[in-house]
Amino acid sequence: MKKSVTKEAMRKLIAYDWPGNVRELKNVVERAIILSRDKKIIRSQHLTFGACKQDSAGFQLDLPSGSSPTLEELEASYLKMLLEKHAGHRATVAQVMGISERHVYRLIGKYDLG
Length: 114
What we know:
Blueprint: E1 4-5, H1 7-15, H2 21-35, E2 41-42, H3 71-85, H4 90-97, H5 101-110
Parallel strand pairs: 1-2
Helix pairs in contact: 4-5
């Protein structure tokens, strides 16, 4: 089914900063298509931004102090933060991270976050 976007929704898309770049845009549009269900028009209320918003202090990741964190430590902390933010909803976390839900399950096991 072909869908169109209202002017208000398009203004909202254009005005957003897109910190996640193309991947975030793709996720927002896909989510809007799903939320609009079988309607032919995507409205501004179908657009949800900032699944991983920053607060005024920035992202809050639990990292070891002192030395520079490893990539694995960053990944584990980011995954833990997203799981807490999205109440353990693995499908949402997978979408935010841009990976498969199966990969999220593997990472949860790898970092013993289950």
